[in-house]
Amino acid sequence: MRAERAFFAILIGGLVLTLVTVSRAQVDSRRIEEVVKKSVLTPEDMQIIDAFVSDAVGRLVRTTDFTEVAKTRAVIVSHQVSQAQYAPRFSEAVSREIGKGFDYATNEITGLDRRFMVFTNLLILANELNDPRFVDLGVRMIPHENSTVRYWAVRVATNPGVWDKLNQDQNTAAALSGKVLDACSKVVQTSSAESLYLMAQFAGRYNTAAAQDLLARVADVRIARYADWAVKYELVDTGILKLLSAKIASGGTANQQLARQFGQLYSYAIQRYIRGVKDNNLKESSASQLASVLVETEQQCLSSLLSGPQTGVRRALEAGDMTALQAEHDKLLGGPNQTGALPSKFNFTYGSAQDKRTSPLPLPEPSQHKAAAETKPSEPKPPAKP
Hints:
Helices cover 67% and strands 0% of the residues. With 386 residues, it is an all-alpha fold.
């Protein structure tokens, strides 16, 4: 739990735009306040709802003073109530006006930074409303090249509160979840760590082949980023490893594949920590995050998967003994001269069907990765945050 709280602190610090300090609300809510109090609405009341939403979302889109947008969003969300006539009209109005907002930003705002800011604020509003009708909006925006816009699009499309509602109708949920999984799968390679974590969480809700494939793709991307020395926000791997562990423990035909990915991802996290300590080149933030990944995964995943408490990794970290940590790595995951407890229990190897290697792939030297990068065609990189 401590690691997850820390992760979300990083996430919020990195993604919430300059929306914290607000001054005063600019939206006139006096008439809508009277409507909210009523038990039966008139046609005039419906028009007041439409006018309020149009004004509020319009201000959200058109303002250039971004210290006001958080307050405006809060005003809109605070007027979402469950009254039988009010709720559907409000939902319809907000959906319509958010759609207009995207059209306006796309066609009228020429500056990319401001356009992305408007997209982001509209998606944050959609997420805060917890309305199932916005899942399609999130799906449409997931391919967006801007990493912050994509993050909020994934968050809208995978909102847990929304999916708790949608899953009450299994047929509808199955069709819509397929769209979400497909959209996420297409952008896994270029998505940020934060977006990958949301994708993995969503995939973890389902036992379908598409969900299994998305979770596996996310794990492969994280593994590749460790190998390329391009990994960021290592703390997300605690969550990803927990999701893999839960699927492994539940059984199924993909057990060996997921167990292999679990072992390789956890191995790379351990190897990165050991290498960083020995070379004295690991940033304090990365060292802290990796230590949390190592300890929480041992306690919450390996102890369960191996049917007994595991404490060797924690004790090695507390002692600062990298030799002991490597020995524990080999005992759990496999080493040059031994098959690890995890591969033994779940009957997998780390290599191809031909080489059947019993130990995880070694983390490449940074210099090896640099040389390889200079000789291969350049690959698209994840977009920078605005």
